[in-house]
Amino acid sequence: MNLKDCYNFDDFRKLAKKKLPAPIFHYIDGGADDEITLNRNTNSFNDCDLVPNILNSVGEPDLSTTVFGRKIDMPLFLSPTAMQSLYDPEGDKASARAAEKFNTIYSMSTMASFSIEEVANVSSGPKLFQLYIHKDKSITDDLIDRCSRANFDAMCITVDTLVAGNRERDHRTGFTTPPKFTLDSLLSFAMRPGWVFKYFTNKKFELANIKNKTDKGTNIAKSVMDYINEQYDPAMNWKDAEYCIKKWNKPMALKGVMSVEDAKRAIDIGCTAIMISNHGGRQLDGSRSPFDQVKAISDAVGDKLEIILDGGVRRGTHVLKALAAGATACSFGKAFLFSLGAGGQQGVERLLENMQKEIRRNMILMGCKSVKDLDESKIIYRN
What we know:
Shape: globular
Structural class: alpha/beta
Strand content: 5-15%
CATH superfamily: Aldolase class I
Radius of gyration: 20 Å
Largest sheet: 8 strands, parallel
Number of helices: 15
CATH topology: TIM Barrel
Number of domains: 1
Oligomer: single chain
Distance between the termini: 40 Å
CATH architecture: Alpha-Beta Barrel
Order of helices and strands: HHHEEEEHEHEHEHHHHHEHEHEHEHE
CATH class: Alpha Beta
Strand order of the largest sheet: 4-11-10-9-8-7-6-5
């Protein structure tokens, strides 16, 4: 199996599983506790049906939309995800170049493998930075200032990671950052010599954006959960978010909003967007899926800010359903990380090409000339 055989999420996942050592594959693949929310994120789309219109003379549909002040060529972009060099040596640089090729947004995590400056130098495409508020305020201020100098277009504050979720797969596989070779994991690493060769012959693992501020999670083997619990501010509140919004003074979203009440409050503190997200089912298990909440939030605040559905997207039809329910755009993480692990930049490009074709084809089948035609009349909920 190779990239040309990858037509959907499951294909990329299978190829990534062949190439990545088990601790790293399962770090992408897993969720919190019993992984109920992880699975619900995608399954929730099945509770809603599309209703096409015929003979609409669609021609070539317009997939473009505007989000964070940038016009993008399809209503889907890359979610911020940490430590991408674990999946491919080029990591964030590969993802950013792929996103630029399709004129969609690349999002950078605070815990990226490459720095704000390194990625800005390789991509002039639209870029979003995902900010974690640290206990050490100077780290937060430094990240905002550097993104401003590097001309990032927008920022989001992740608000659902005050403590780390209980990701039991990581405990079982012994996942650490950087990877640590243990008796339990040694066989898995040994069976993937291609990954091991790339890992040891390329740039040393580091959390490039914070390496000069703290050595936690960079120079010592440390689980992601330990890093979160030690470094992120569990006392973060609305005033902290408002401070960051004012300091940034460009398009800003809160990532992790799941309730109408919080969406309204995001407007009050100056947000231009929200990302409806449960962190890919990796934090609070048993919570609602983003798609479960899109309609209620859109009905309440959809005319006042942009709404991004983040989580569970596997197909072009999922994007269409989200937009019809009131989202401005969607973002996804697991899918593109599997494609990155399966084939680096080419893998991400293959995935984005597949998704672009699916969205285009399905819009034609729906009788929609543009994403603006995707409204509540185009879906019916089963319940």
